[in-house]
TrEMBL record:
Record organism: Leadbetterella byssophila (strain DSM 17132 / JCM 16389 / KACC 11308 / NBRC 106382 / 4M15)
Identification of the protein by name: Lipoprotein
Domain of life: Bacteria
Length: 123
């Protein structure tokens, strides 16, 4: 009986992992940055689809490394309330961007999962 219960629990864990593997990813597109004089730089993204997830946050990440992540500088889209897809969001980066080449990309989060759009650059 004890072994049967352990088998059922293990089978449940495996099927949870299989469900996770079968989910489609969130599809995110990065839109070009543009500057509004006196206001800051605007970054946008498009969440093309949620895949098999529920998007809980989106925004733009940027920095001087070629693959910025949410651990770098991020600007969250606020308010964020997608009701249909594709969903376009924008953020304003206040102040000046660092000098040199800036790498940026849109992101969408679903819990602890982060999905990124393509990385773009701005000089």
């Amino acid at each position: 009986m004890k072994h049967a219960l352990m088998f059922v629990m293990l089978l449940g864990l495996i099927s949870c992992k299989d469900d996770e593997l079968e989910k489609e990813p969130i599809v995110v597109t990065t839109v070009d940055l543009f500057t509004i004089t006196g206001r800051g730089t605007v970054g946008s993204g498009i969440i093309e689809s949620e895949g098999g997830y529920k998007v809980t946050e989106a925004g733009i990440v940027y920095g001087t490394s070629s693959s910025p992540t949410v651990d770098d500088v991020k600007e969250k889209a606020d308010p964020f309330a997608p009701t249909e897809f594709p969903y376009t969001f924008s953020v304003t980066i206040r102040g000046s961007l660092p000098s040199g080449t800036i790498y940026y990309r849109a992101y969408a989060a679903a819990g602890d999962k982060i999905f990124y759009g393509q990385t773009k650059t701005k000089n």
